[in-house]
Amino acid sequence: MRGRGKLVWLAGILILLIAAILIWFSVPYSPMMTEFEQLKTKQNANLPDSNQVFTAEDIAGLPLPLQRYFEYCGFLGKPKMPNMKIEHNNVDFILNSKKLKIQCTQYNSALKPERIALIKTHLYGIPFEGLDAYQNGIGSMKGVFAKNITLFNQKGAAMNQSSLVNCLAESLLVPEMALQNFMTWETINDHQVRGTISYYGLSVTGIFSFDKNGLLEQFTTEDRVYVDTAGNEKRIKWSAVCDNYREINGIKQPKTLKAIWHLPEGDLVYFDGNDTVIQYNESK
To answer: In terms of DSSP H, where are the helices of 138-203?
Structure first.
């Protein structure tokens, strides 16, 4: 009887432990979420009032493909935006060869190159969160399993450069950034421009391609650093693709966003989002 009582006691403890774990996984709070909220508050602090609008004079010095982009997408006459919020819903994402469905919330500043993104998904039914951040010239990518187990926390010069490339790639989605003095533009032809961003002692460049109307179709660069599963770093051609534009509040914005590594063995579409929503001047 004494042994049976001990088994019952152990079974009770196990049930309570499992219940506690399930409750912990089900509550919305997590240390990663708290860190994201702190970074978001810092990045969005002291945003200026959006009391100015884009004018033809603002874009007169830009290459003609960029001017068509501003005009056709409907930015002229609209309030300038010091930041943007992007919700990436139901994204097909590849992490270390594993295919996942993720939800991603992202904030970008237009006044200086800063961005943060929080990724939420599940691995083997257990919550996984990723935090992609670039602030004060420091880039990082952290992944946390079961809310407390850090699987990776990438930092360093390669991450700083790749994070700045991300800011450049997304600069036309928050187009006030295109007008900042840390951005330079060069005409390549009637449908392509070369953009360069120089900040925090770094400079990265990429090519923006537009369709005949002026919609942004693709950004391509060779300044982003690819890290393979063995930790080796090398520069590989990288592209961001915009597609399926729709009009929201008078502004055309892409519903589809993809990120692609052009690897020697073939293209890897590791981020494939088909339900993207962009909001401007959002701090929450």
So the answer is: 157-169
CA–CA separation, 11 and 17 (whole Å): 10
CA atoms within 13 A on the CB side of 83: 22
Instruction: List the domain boundaries for the chain.
Output: 28-280
* Distance in angstroms (rounded) separating the CA atoms of residues 202 and 113: 11
What residues are paired with 185 via a beta bridge? 195
Burial class (CB in 10 A: 0-12, 13-18, 19+), 167: buried
Q: What is the pLDDT of residues 5-45, one digit of tens each?
A: 555 545 445 444 443 344 444 445 688 889 999 999 999 88
* More confident position, 275 or 95: 275
Question: Rounded to whole angstroms, what are the CA distances from 234 to 162, 223, 231, 238, 252?
Answer: 11, 10, 10, 12, 35
Amino acid at 192: Q
Q: How many CA atoms lie within 13 A of 33 on its CB side?
A: 9
Q: Mean pLDDT lowest for which of 21-30, 41-50, 96-105, 107-116? A: 21-30
Distance between CA 12 and CA 83 in Å, rounded?
51
| E strand intervals along 162-228 | 183-189, 192-199, 202-210, 216-221, 225-227
Quick one: tokens of 222? 């060779």
pLDDT tens sequence across 122-135? 887 888 899 999 99
Average pLDDT, the chain: 88
- Count CB neighbours of 82 within 10 A: 21
Residue 76 per-residue DSSP state: B
Q: Which amino acid is at 163?
A: S
> Do 179 and 58 touch, CB atoms closer than 8 A?
yes
DSSP string, 246-257: EEETTEEEEEEE
**Residues 182/198, Cβ–Cβ less than 8 Å:** yes
